[in-house]
Write a structure and sequence with these properties.
There is one protein chain. By secondary structure, the protein is α/β, with parallel strands linked by helices. It folds into 3 domains: 9-136, Ribosomal Protein S5, domain 2 (2-Layer Sandwich), CATH 3.30.230; 175-269, Rossmann fold (3-Layer(aba) Sandwich); 271-400, Up-down Bundle (Four Helix Bundle (Hemerythrin (Met), subunit A)), CATH 1.20.120. The chain has 14 helices and 13 strands. A 5-stranded mixed β-sheet has the order 1-2-5-3-4, sandwiched between helices. The chain has a 3-stranded parallel β-sheet with strand order 9-8-10. Strand 6 (176-177) and strand 7 form a beta hairpin. Helix 3 packs antiparallel against helix 4, helix 4 (142-162) runs antiparallel to helix 5 and helix 13 crosses helix 14. The longest helix is centred in the N-terminal third of the chain and has 24 residues, at 117-140. It is elongated.
C-alpha cells in the first residue's frame, strides 16, 4: 500500500514514536497483513548520506520468495519502487517497511547501483543498524529473543553467510539451540561442551541433528555419553557450518548420524574387540555377501557392548557437500548427482554379532543379518517398499 500521508512515521524522530505508532504504520503499509511483525528498526541518518525509514521483521512463511519486494523505496516521500535489489543487502530483502533517501540514483542498472559509493554506504549502514538492533533485543530480553529465534533464524543465518561484518557481530546474538530446547551463544556453547567434547587431537567437536525424530537413536547415544546435541535444521545449515569451521579455531561440526558416537569424538582409550582378528576376517565377507555393495560399505568396529549390533552412518563430508550443492553453490561440482553412500558399522562387541558368527545354518545366519540390517535401516528411515514388506513378514516369522 503506497503511503500518501503527508507526515508519515518514518519522517518523525524515533523518540517521538511509541510502539503503537509503529504498529499503526505497519497496518497502514500492509492493510491485508493480519499478523503483527516481530519487531522494527528505525533508520535515521543525515551524514555522510541522507536516509530515513522503518524496517519490520515479519514472521517468515515457508515460501520465502513470496516475501521479497515488500520494502518500498521513496525519494523525499515520493514513491519510487518496491524493488530494492542492489540497495538493501540480499539477506534483508525479506523484511518489510520503507526507506527514503535522495542519495540513491534512479533509473540505473543493478551493477551501477552496487558500485555506487553512496549506495554501498547505505547498505552497510542498514546492515549495522539491523545487527545493533538484534544485539539490543538479545541483551534487553533474552527470553523473548529466544522465543522469536525460529522466526528470524533464516534471515540471521543468511546474513552471517553473505555479510562478513554482520557475521562478526553475530557472535553477540546468534543462537545455537539444543535438542532439549536450551539456547547457547557460540561462546556459551564452547564453555559448556569443552570438558567432554574435546577429542584426542584437542579439537572441539560440536554434535548436531537436523531432524530430531529421524535421528533420535543417534541423539540418544550421544546424550548417554553426556554430550550436548544441537538442533540445526535450516536449509542453509551446511553452508553456515562450513563458514563457522573456517573462521573458528579447532572446532569441528559432526551430525550425530555421521559415524558411531565413539568415532565422532575420538578419545585416547581404544575399545578391545570380543572377536579376534581371525574371527573379524571370517565374519566380514559373510555380511558383505548380503549387504548391497553399491550403497553400503561394511566396517567392523569394537564399540560398547550395549550399542546396537548394526549402525548405519553417512559420512559427514560427502553428505555436507551434496547438501551444499542442492541449496545453491558450495561443495564440489557434480556432487549433487552422486548416489547416497552409507557405512554399515558392525559392533563386534554386541552379543548378536557373536551369535551371527557362531550360527552354523546359512539360512538362519542370513535371516539374522537381514533382520539386524533392516532394523538399522529403519532407524535411519531408509526401509521402504518391498524391503519393508519383507522385514515385517520376517519379523512375524521370528516371533511365532
Amino acid at each position: 500500500n503506497i503511503v500518501n500521508n503527508p507526515n508519515p512515521a518514518w519522517t518523525k524522530n524515533p523518540t517521538d514514536l511509541k510502539e503503537e505508532d509503529y504498529a499503526e504504520f505497519y497496518r497502514e503499509l500492509y492493510p491485508m497483513q493480519f499478523e503483527e511483525p516481530l519487531f522494527n528498526i528505525h533508520l535515521n541518518v543525515d551524514y555522510p548520506f541522507n536516509l530515513t525509514g522503518i524496517l519490520y521483521f515479519p514472521k517468515l512463511t515457508k515460501n520465502i520468495d513470496q516475501m521479497k519486494d515488500k520494502i518500498q523505496l521513496y525519494q523525499n516521500q515520493v514513491f519510487v519502487t518496491d524493488n530494492v535489489e542492489g540497495i538493501v543487502p540480499d539477506f534483508l530483502q525479506m523484511l518489510r517497511g520503507v526507506i527514503d533517501s535522495p542519495d540513491i540514483p534512479l533509473n540505473v542498472s543493478r551493477s551501477y547501483l552496487q558500485s555506487d559509493a553512496a549506495v554501498k554506504k547505505i547498505a552497510s549502514y542498514i546492515t549495522r543498524k539491523v545487527a545493533d538492533k538484534l544485539i539490543s533485543l538479545f541483551k534487553n530480553d533474552r527470553k523473548a529473543f529466544e522465543e522469536k529465534w525460529n522466526d528470524i533464524k533464516i534471515i540471521i543465518e543468511y546474513g552471517m553467510l553473505s555479510e562478513d561484518k554482520f557475521f562478526e557481530k553475530s557472535d553477540k546474538f546468534a543462537l545455537y539451540p539444543t535438542v532439549d530446547g536450551t539456547y547457547f551463544t557460540f561462546e556459551e556453547l564452547q564453555e559448556k561442551i569443552k570438558p567432554l567434547q574435546t577429542d584426542k587431537d584437542n579439537n572441539l567437536v560440536i554434535l548436531y541433528a537436523s531432524n530430531e525424530k529421524a535421528q533420535h537413536s543417534y541423539i540418544d547415544a550421544a546424550k548417554e555419553k553426556g554430550y550436548e546435541v544441537l538442533l540445526l535444521d535450516s536449509p542453509i545449515v551446511s553452508h553456515l557450518i562450513q563458514k563457522l569451521e573456517g573462521s573458528k579455531e579447532n572446532i569441528h561440526f559432526a551430525r550425530v548420524d555421521a559415524d558411531q558416537i565413539d568415532n565422532l569424538i575420538k578419545k585416547d582409550e581404544a575399545k578391545i574387540s570380543k572377536l579376534s582378528d581371525k574371527e573379524i576376517e571370517e565374519l566380514k565377507p559373510i555380511i558383505e555377501e548380503i549387504i548391497p555393495k553399491k550403497t553400503y560399505s561394511v566396517q567392523l568396529e569394537a564399540m560398547d557392548s550395549s550399542a546396537n549390533p548394526f549402525i548405519i552412518t553417512q559420512p559427514e563430508f560427502m553428505r555436507r557437500m551434496k547438501e551444499m550443492q542442492a541449496t545453491g553453490g558450495g561443495g564440489f561440482m557434480g556432487m549433487g548427482n552422486f548416489p547416497d553412500m552409507y557405512n554399515l558399522v558392525v559392533n563386534t562387541n554386541n552379543e548378536l554379532v557373536g551369535k551371527i558368527l557362531a550360527t552354523k545354518t546359512k539360512k538362519k545366519q542370513e535371516a539374522l543379518i537381514k533382520q539386524a540390517f533392516d532394523l538399522a535401516k529403519l532407524s535411519q528411515n531408509l526401509l521402504h517398499g518391498e524391503d519393508l514388506t519383507n522385514f515385517i513378514k520376517r519379523s512375524f516369522e521370528l516371533i511365532k
